[in-house]
Amino acid sequence: MVLKANSVFERDFITAKERFPKLKYGWDAKIKMWVITGELDICDTAGVYWNTFQIAMLVPRGYPYCVPIVAERSDIVPRDIDWHISPEGICCLDTDNSLIAMSKSGINVGDFIAEKVYTFFANQIHKLESKQYAGAEYAHHTAGVIQYYVEELNIPSAEAAIQILKKVLNKQGLSRNDRCPCGSGLKVKSCHETGIETIKSFGPVKIKKDIENIEKHLSAEPL
């Protein structure tokens, strides 16, 4: 069957299907989302077949400015937090912050499957075989949020992240020539300007939640 592109999503899915031919899509009017279902074959870098996963992927109609929800239907991955998958099979592909930041720039469904979904399941196979992930594993819950700010946005500490988050939330002291709230002594334009712009894209609800969770996490840590 020749697919016709009537929307941005459908246009992108046609290209994605060339890379992942066992996937198909439909529009669910009840939940107002595109639904991708089918099989995802996983191979190693040499092209050697590893395994096949049954997946379902919900893509909000705000595509491409959205974060798809991905679930495994094949029950290959243990349903456990240490495997980054919920009891219902919902996959934790990355930290919320990273996915939100990515969605603000717009995603491409084919690239998202290749870079996030395919990589997630390839890593799960690696762990099933070797008992550990191929790359560095990100932490769970608030620890993962802190890891995002420190590693992805290069903020020196959780405490410094809180200071920047509060400045962004209150919309103060963040002009390019102000001292960066991270404590470096440098001006914003020479320090965390890009990271601050990324944080702004999260919106006040997410920023406030991160502040509260990080502060709670730090207060719970042993002295």
UniProtKB/TrEMBL annotation:
InterPro entries: SEC_C_motif. Gene3D superfamilies: 3.10.450.50. This is SEC-C motif-containing protein. It comes from Mucilaginibacter pineti.
